[in-house]
Each structure stands twice: as structure tokens, then as C-alpha cells.
Design a protein that fits this description.
Strand order of the largest sheet: 2-1-3
Number of domains: 2
Radius of gyration: 30 Å
Strand content: 5-15%
Largest sheet: 3 strands, antiparallel
Helix content: over 70%
Shape: elongated
Distance between the termini: 98 Å
CATH class of the largest domain: Mainly Alpha
Order of helices and strands: EEHEHHHHHHHHHHHHHHH
Number of helices: 16
């Protein structure tokens, strides 16, 4: 049974390094440390009190912003010539995310035990994607880990910036829609019933629009409200279960690409991510088949993923990437032509980078256009909805005034 030990060693420059590892006994751990080129100063067994246990909870989703900062700092330290273990030790101490700090510490232990950095990172998919791990593995094999980490950092930051811009652009329309729904619900539940009682005391026939509004108010304020809440909860649960299946994800992603007006934005986003991921993997030295497989897993769209499966099958048979890519309807002719030129000239990664830059600018322009269109439409919806309710409440009052005259 493995036991936890803390150790103190010195490297070839005389710098003191401390850490902790699991081993069968102190002699085995000391032998491992000597094999790693360290001079062992001390090895002590960790004493655990009764009822006390160290718990590391992994699987917690780490913020993308924290991963971006970690990657950029990691690349800078490696480029400066710091040892890998020292880099991980420093990064685990200075990161603001406690979850990421635990993950980095665990990776440091794995590396100290003799495993590669990519193997250590692959144990934490909640923080490091397959794309991330594959690029680090290629950087380790090619001896250019610092360059690869810089490329990963650039890619993560570009993707984060696009997501941040989309979220920022959607914040105002979503807020307007939420305010509209809350306002309408409040008027239906609290305002209209009081006017309905007043109209009842006044007598006479109510206008048709007012009758409709009063009926809706009674439905929403009574048992109908519970029915609506139950339907919303049931719909959300069913939607999540359907979306969790491969068939559901594929149907949803296919519907996204065909949606009017916003479908083009989803399509451009998928093309941007596809070209950027594939280009970064190829430029980092990942084999083409592995790069296509990883890209298919990280595009975020099942339609593109299935199309890339067919492309990968064609490449296995000796075909170029462009030919099976052109047979898939999801890839525009411009993308296919650029990839074909890249294959002919041997600059596939450069062409893919140009494609991703083009679609990044298209996505930015599409988001701005969508925001400028949605805002007046939502304001119009808010004004029309509230206006109809106000008119329905004042129509009976106007009728009474007319009768008095």
C-alpha cells in the first residue's frame, strides 16, 4: 500500500526543492528522486491524524479565464528556462482559483513521479480539453513546449474573447425580455383583477379586448399559473435530457445552422473554431488524422463533427482533406478551396489561420448586426404588449364616460 511522503531535494544547481509523493516506502521514493537527478536531503512520512483526511475534489469546472492566465504564465516561465516542476509549483501558489490550484498541484505530483506533462493534464478533462492535451504532447515530443503553450494561449484567448463578446451583446436583449415578462406577469396577476372588480360594480357589457385580458388574468392568477409553471419545469427537464443524447445534440445543432437570421452566425462560429483548432494542431506537429479527430471533438457542433468523421475516413484511404470536405454541405466552398491550396503549397496551417481570421471578423460583424436589430424589436415588443393591456383597461372607462354624456 502506498504511503504519502514529503521530501526535500537539491537539483544540480544546488537549489532546494520540496514536495510530496506516494511510494511504498522511503527508500523507494529516495531511489526515484535520485533517478530524476536530484540529491536527496530528507524524506519524511506524512502523519495523518485520526479522523482527518486530505480530500481533493476534482471534476469542478474551472473558469476559462483562469485557464487562459495559467497557460500564458506557464509559457512565459518555460520560455525563461525555469524547470517544469518549478513552474507548476509557482503557478499552483499564485493562481486565484482554488480548484485550479489543486489540479496544478496534482499535475506537479504526477510529473515528479515520472509521468509526462500531457499525461498529467489528461487526468483533468474538466480543466484541459483534448485539444489542449494533444498540443502539449506534440510540444513535448518536438521539444518546443513553450511555443506550443503560446499558441494554445492565443487560441484560448481568441475563443474566450468571441464568447465574451457574444454574451455581452446578448445581455441587454435578454434583460429587456426578462423585464417585459415580469412586467406583463405583474399586470396580469395584480393590476387587471382590481380593474375587473371595478368593472363588475359599474355593470354593463365589457369590450371584447377587455374580456380577453380579464380571462387571461383569471387563468394566470388561478390554477392556470400552476399549470404554466409545471409545463415550464417539465419542458426544461425534457429539453435537457433530449440535448444530452447524441441524437438530440445532432438535431439541435442541425436546427441551429438552419435558423433564419441567426443560423448564419452559428455556422460562421463553427467554421471559425474548426479552422482555428485544426490549424493550431497541425502547426504544433500533431499528425493529420489525430488533428482531425480532436478538431471534431472540439468544434461544439455535431453536424461538423460527423462531417469530419467522413473526412478522416477519406484521409485514411489516401485522399486529400479538401475532396471529402467538399462533399459535406456544412463546409462553404471558400473553406474547401483555401484548404486545397494549403495542401498543394504545403502551407495548410497558414491557410487555416487565414480562414479563422476571416470568420472571426464575420462573427464579430454578425454579433453587432444582431444586437442592433434585436434591441429595437424588443423595445417594440415591450411597448406593444404594455400598450395592449393599458388600452384594454381604459376602454370600459371610456365607454362609461360616453354613457354619462
Amino acid at each position: 500500500m502506498a504511503t504519502q511522503f514529503t521530501y526535500t531535494v537539491r537539483d544540480r544547481t544546488g537549489r532546494e526543492i520540496t514536495g510530496s509523493l506516494e511510494a511504498e516506502n522511503a527508500d523507494v521514493l529516495a531511489g526515484k528522486l535520485r533517478q530524476m537527478g536530484y540529491f536527496v536531503v530528507s524524506v519524511d512520512q506524512v502523519k495523518v491524524g485520526v479522523g482527518k483526511k486530505e480530500i481533493h475534489i476534482f471534476g469542478v469546472k474551472v473558469k476559462q479565464e483562469d485557464i487562459n492566465i495559467f497557460t500564458r504564465q506557464f509559457a512565459t516561465m518555460i520560455n525563461a528556462g525555469l524547470p517544469l516542476i518549478k513552474c507548476l509549483s509557482i503557478l499552483s501558489q499564485q493562481t486565484e482559483s482554488s480548484s485550479l490550484a489543486d489540479i496544478i498541484t496534482d499535475c506537479q505530483r504526477e510529473v515528479e513521479a515520472g509521468r509526462s506533462l500531457s499525461e498529467a493534464l489528461s487526468k483533468h478533462p474538466e480543466a484541459f480539453s483534448n485539444l489542449y492535451v494533444a498540443m502539449v504532447r506534440a510540444g513535448e515530443l518536438g521539444g518546443m513546449l513553450d511555443d506550443v503553450l503560446l499558441r494554445v494561449a492565443d487560441q484560448l484567448e481568441r475563443e474566450y474573447e468571441i464568447r465574451r463578446k457574444v454574451k455581452s451583446a446578448m445581455t441587454y436583449p435578454i434583460a429587456i425580455m426578462g423585464i417585459t415578462l415580469v412586467l406583463l406577469a405583474g399586470m396580469m396577476i395584480f393590476v387587471i383583477p382590481k380593474f375587473a372588480d371595478m368593472f363588475k360594480q359599474m355593470g354593463g357589457e365589457l369590450p371584447s379586448l377587455t374580456k380577453v385580458m380579464v380571462g387571461i388574468s383569471h387563468f394566470v392568477g388561478g390554477w392556470g399559473g400552476l399549470v404554466i409553471i409545471a409545463c415550464v419545469i417539465g419542458g426544461v427537464v425534457a429539453w435537457r435530457r433530449f440535448k444530452a443524447t447524441d441524437r438530440g445534440r445532432y438535431a439541435l445543432d442541425k436546427f441551429k445552422l438552419k435558423m433564419p437570421y441567426v443560423g448564419g452566425l452559428f455556422h460562421k462560429t463553427a467554421m471559425s473554431k474548426f479552422s482555428r483548432s485544426l490549424g493550431t494542431l497541425i502547426s504544433s506537429g500533431v499528425p493529420i488524422l489525430g488533428a482531425l479527430e480532436i478538431t471534431g471533438e472540439t468544434t461544439g457542433n455535431m453536424v461538423v463533427t460527423k462531417a469530419l468523421d467522413s473526412v478522416r475516413a477519406g484521409v485514411k484511404e489516401g485522399e486529400t482533406i479538401a475532396r471529402p470536405l467538399g462533399e459535406a454541405d456544412v463546409f462553404p466552398p471558400m473553406v474547401v478551396q483555401m484548404i486545397a491550396i494549403g495542401e498543394e503549397t504545403g502551407a495548410l496551417d497558414v491557410m487555416l489561420a487565414k480562414v479563422s481570421e476571416f470568420y472571426d471578423s464575420e462573427v464579430n460583424a454578425g454579433v453587432d448586426s444582431l444586437t442592433s436589430t434585436l434591441e429595437p424589436m424588443l423595445m417594440m415588443f415591450l411597448g406593444v404588449s404594455v400598450g395592449i393591456i393599458v388600452i384594454s383597461l381604459y376602454l370600459p372607462i371610456f365607454r362609461v364616460i360616453t354613457m354619462i354624456k
